[in-house]
Amino acid sequence: APKRGLYGAVVVVILGMVIPQTMFWGEYEFQTLSTMSPASTLTHIWPTTGLFGFEMENGTHALIVAFAKLIAISFTVAGGYRGGFIFPFFASGAAFGRALCWVIPSIPIPLACLSFAAAINVGITRTALATPIILCFLAGEQNAMSGVLAASLVSLFATTYMPFIGPQQPREDIHTAMFSTIDDPQI
Q1: Please, which pLDDT band fits residue 84 given cuts at 50, 70 and 90?
Q2: Which of 27, 155, 159, 171 to pair with 165, CA 20 to 30 A apart?
Q3: Are the C-beta atoms of residues 144 and 178 closer than 8 Å to each other?
């Protein structure tokens, strides 16, 4: 276990030195990532420029931050560090949302960021109704609720039989609802 913690720390610190937006649990980063603000607004990181002055300046950089944040989450959880993964998933989702807005500029930024954040979180936690409520109300974007709920439900149904965490159990209520008509020979 100590080696696992050391490996996790090394990867997270290296990622943070190269891409400062991957540091911390996510609640401090969400605003910076969703608005593509300069890394200098990350008040919990010093120096905020990292080793190479990486900034989220375009869609490619947003994708880099999103994937690097997912890697950081993986090593943080595998290393046994506290902090969980829900808010970090939200931060990664914000970066994916910003990348999508570079590809399709007509999508409202709050909707893209919140929808990706919800979809990633629901894919892991299976909390399809609570996640959109929490995200939309924390962000003050209650008008995005229907789109964020749709993203949550799509994620829930797409990942129902993909356990990402060891003790994660498939949801029997979804299996029953989805496959009761398929398994029923009378229909």
Answers
A1: confident
A2: 27
A3: no
- CB neighbour list of residue 138: distance below 8 Å, 6 or more residues apart: none
DSSP for 48-99?
TTTTTT----SHHHHHHHHHHHHHHHHHHHHTT-SS-SHHHHHHHHHHHHHH
Interatomic CA distance for residues 141 and 115, integer angstroms:
11
**Residue 80 pLDDT exceeds 70:** yes
Q: Report which of 158, 112, 163 is spatially closest to residue 139, judged by C-alpha positions.
A: 112
pTM as predicted: 0.81
Q: What's the pLDDT at 141?
A: 93
What distance in Å separates the CA atoms of residue 56 and residue 94, rounded to the nearest whole number?
A: 12
Distance of CA 69 to the CA centre of its chain: 8
Contact 56, 98 (CB under 8 A): yes
Residue 163 is predicted with a pLDDT of 64
Residue 14: both structure tokens together: 């290296």
The answer, yes or no, to whether residue 112 has pLDDT greater than 80, is yes
DSSP secondary structure letter of residue 168? -
Q: Return d(Cα 112, Cα 118) in angstroms, integer.
A: 10
